[in-house]
Amino acid sequence: MQKHTQLKKAVFPVAGLGTRFLPATKAQPKEMLPVVDKPLIQYAVEEAYSAGIRHMIFVTGRNKRAIEDHFDTAYELENELEVAKKLKLLEVLRSVQPKDLHFSYVRQARSLGLGHAVLCAEHLVGDEPFAVLLADDLMVGPPGGLSVLGQMAEQFNVLGESILAVQEVPAEQTQRYGIVAGETVRDGLIKVSAMVEKPAPEVAPSRMAVAGRYILTPGVFDQLRHQNKGAGGEIQLTDGIAGLMQHQGVYAFQYQGKRYDCGSKEGFLEATVELALNHHEVGGYFRNYLENLQIGWSGKERRVNKLTPVVYQD
Ligand code: G1P
Q1: Can you tell me which atom of ligand 1 is nearest the CA of 114?
Q2: What is the distance between the alpha carbons of residues 12 and 42, in angstroms, rounded to a whole number?
């Protein structure tokens, strides 16, 4: 087991195009889409913060400036809120950017894959362990418990080796994920011996899928630097970790909590509904609204209001 240091840095690959949400993402990054009242990326940054991380590194691309602006000070807005004595809102605004938080940005000039995106952050990470968070996966820890990355950081403090968040998925979904297999060390922890990116169900080594949270040792950069293209013709992070596994331990950790796949419309809607139901301000209202919505649940005869949203028409 190698000697480990405390986790200080997190990498957020945010250069992806978000085509699944067009036209909403035509002129704004998909990571800025709000779930209730916070952009997706802020949930991920807050999760990293909760795990003790204070240096956030974004791997961005063209059309992603809104992310930098979001984590920067909005002087004009702050000033207006101050003058108008809207102190609660001012507090909300400032909470995005705690004083001990630092941000760095690096561009991924070409979409060569997730592994390539992580490699773009090498000079900012340096020779220390780091976390990777994919903001598309909105992770919620158990009530009153640690965040998912917080749970992983706790494991990392003991193991000192790379850790991937995993969850079991139905066989027909293995093609969407990195899939791992290995030996169960104890309940919820697997020492990984095989790792494949997006295998078809017939060849998948298991149904244990990697969710978008990783804690990696810097050795992964050596792997990524010398790596060939993998699944989908991209430099895959999964392949880099599979290479790392030949030299160091890699663990898969079944986290407590829930993952919302906000890279898909379905997952995004689920997150919106469930987080709205739990929201301190609108939760009560929204629960009542849903209970009165006529959508035919609980076996009773109910009907949905047929809506016709406005679209361009000749
Ligand atoms: C990426 C990773 C995959 C992982 C998934 C989790 O895939 O390549 O290994 O299981 O994130 O969300 P993507 O969703 O970017 O295609």
Answers
A1: 8
A2: 11
Q: Measured from the CB, is residue 134 less than 6 Å from ligand 1?
A: yes
pLDDT tens-digit profile of 106-124? Answer: 999 888 999 999 999 999 9
Q: Residue 32: CB partners within 8 Å, gap ≥ 6?
A: 39, 40, 41, 66, 67, 70
Amino acid identity, position 229: K
Residue corresponding to tokens 């820890």: 141
Distance (angstroms) between ligand 1 centre and the Cα of 246 equals 21
Q: In whole angstroms, what is the distance from residue 193 CA to residue 188 CA? A: 16
* CATH 3.40.50.2300 correct for 9-268: no
Rounded Cα–Cα distance for residues 142 and 224 (Å): 34
Average pLDDT over residues 83-111: 92
Amino acid at 222: D
Evaluate if pTM is beyond 0.85: yes
Q: What distance in angstroms lies between residue 167's CA and the mean position of ligand 1's atoms?
A: 13
**Cα of 166 from ligand 1 centre, angstroms:** 11
Distance (Å) from CA 297 to ligand 1 centroid: 34
Tell me the mean pLDDT in the region 140-159: 96
pLDDT on residue 291: 86
Cβ–ligand 1 distance for 177 under 6 Å, the answer yes
